UniProtKB/TrEMBL annotation:
Keywords: Hydrolase, Metal-binding, Zinc. The keyword Zinc applies. Residues 202-338 form the Peptidase M20 dimerisation domain. Signal peptide: none annotated. The lineage of its organism: Bacteria, Bacillati, Actinomycetota, Actinomycetes, Mycobacteriales. It holds the Pfam family M20_dimer. This is Peptidase M20 dimerisation domain-containing protein. Belongs to the peptidase M20A family. GO terms for molecular function: hydrolase activity; metal ion binding.
Length: 444
């Protein structure tokens, strides 16, 4: 057996991953660092004996790394995909108390852009892949480790390109685990004690970025005008921004609310008159959970005009839409009623929603792994209001979950750390997560 375990090196690996500036601006010309980071990951895997595949997903520098660890030779089970993206959203160093690409370890935290999204899980997966290879571990099924590009811009030059152009890379895979799941939510119980619930992502809202365009006759700003493209778009944007979509209870959200109600005594039933108010008693994660009760459409960009005294011929806006499973047609109908006949809409990015059930052997393995290291813990399903690379893998019929286990301090505003200033992850949480993830992979 090796003298070095995954927990011995995982903190350093996460820190080193953060030091690679893999900022994804959304523009291929200015996105950087993915190739350098991916090749470093490949080197860490090859160092312990893996044969890796480095694949560029449609553009130079969009680096992805794959490595497989064989299961029993007589196994007829499908492979398990463990996926982590290496890109991060940009960060402005002047806004941070530490440099966002320092990977600093201080005050019990690993600091830097990507610490929770998602170089913590990338580091855990890398550390465990290295330990398993060094120790000669044969997992109960084949494990496929994938370190990917471009997730932060929707995966067009990452997971979605790979699925569409290199599906053989995913041959034999039937299930997958990725980010934004497995973290703890501490809730207060009626008897004064607390309970840690570990949220496993079983569903994601659809991601759809919509462009609105209005065109009208250009003219001088001092004249009377009965049509104005800026006015048309502004009014459409205002109507959308003030609109509240209907409350819709999906299976994942319904199960989550039922589990939390049972533990806390709060009335979080679908017909509760103050459901959304009660959610905020759960703390900072209420912002994420509340967004899974209904569709959202948030205006994010406006573009029009080139001079103060010229009425432009065209005005545009961009709206970030997140749609619940099964709601796409109804959502588009509501949007069309809001924007009116003089504004045209088109999808810039359109990724489907996803939902699976909270059952089966893999879910049992997650719960057993949590209980092994937190006997008072409990796994519960939930829906992510954002999106992950799971949307791409689902196209291949792969059943996807979010499970990157972390035991978090109750007072930590975890939701605010995603894409936030001073992003950081507790060292103890990473060590806990690595132990849980090892148990999970050994029994998955």
């Amino acid at each position: 057996m090796s003298s070095q375990s995954a927990t011995d090196e995982v903190v350093d690996l996460v820190s080193q991953l953060i030091r690679f500036d893999t900022s994804n601006t959304g523009e291929p010309e200015t996105t950087k660092g993915e190739e350098e980071c991916a090749r470093w990951v490949a080197q860490q895997l090859e160092e312990v004996g893996y044969t890796t595949q480095y694949v560029e997903s449609g553009r130079p520098g969009r680096g992805n790394v794959f490595a497989r660890l064989a299961g029993p030779p007589d196994s007829d089970r499908g492979a398990l995909l463990i996926h982590a993206h290496l890109d991060v959203v940009p960060a402005e160093p002047a806004d941070w108390s530490v440099h966002p690409f320092s990977g600093a370890i201080k005050d019990g935290y690993i600091w830097g852009r990507g610490a929770v999204d998602m170089k913590d899980m990338a580091g855990m997966a890398l550390a465990l892949a290295r330990q398993f290879k060094r120790d000669g571990t044969v997992p109960p099924r084949e494990l496929v480790f994938a370190f990917l590009a471009d997730e932060e811009a929707g995966g067009s030059w990452g997971s979605h390109w790979l699925v569409e152009n290199r599906p053989e890379l995913f041959e034999g895979i039937t299930e997958a685990v990725g980010e934004v799941g497995g973290f703890s939510l501490t809730v207060d119980r009626p008897d004064g004690t607390q309970k840690r619930l570990y949220l496993v992502e079983t569903a994601e809202k659809g991601l759809a970025w919509m462009r609105l365009t209005a065109e009208a006759r250009a003219g001088h700003g001092s004249f009377l005008h009965d049509e104005n493209a800026v006015t048309e778009v502004a009014e459409a944007v205002a109507r959308i921004g003030r609109h509240t979509f209907p409350l819709v209870m999906t299976e994942s959200v319904s199960q989550f609310l039922a589990e939390v109600s049972a533990e806390t005594g709060l009335d979080l039933s679908p017909d509760a008159p103050d459901l959304e108010t009660s959610l905020f008693k759960l703390g900072n994660l209420a912002r994420i959970i509340g967004a899974t009760l209904r569709d959202t459409a948030n205006p994010t960009m406006l573009k029009a005009g080139y001079k103060a005294n010229v009425i432009p011929q065209k005005a545009e806006a961009v709206v970030d839409c997140r749609v619940l499973p099964g709601r796409q047609a109804a959502f588009e109908k509501e949007i069309d009623e809001l924007i009116g006949p003089n504004v045209r809409r088109e999808w810039i990015t359109h990724l489907d929603s996803y939902e699976t059930t909270f059952d089966g052997d893999l879910v049992e393995a997650m719960n057993a792994a949590i209980l092994e290291h937190d006997p008072q813990g409990k796994t519960v399903p939930y829906m992510l209001s954002g999106g992950t690379d799971a949307k791409a893998f689902a196209k291949l019929g792969i059943r996807c979950f979010g499970f990157a286990p972390l035991q978090l301090p109750p007072e930590l505003d975890f939701a605010a750390l995603f894409h936030g200033v001073d992003e950081r992850v507790p060292v103890d949480s990473v060590l806990f997560g690595t132990k849980v993830f090892e148990h999970f992979l050994r029994h998955s």
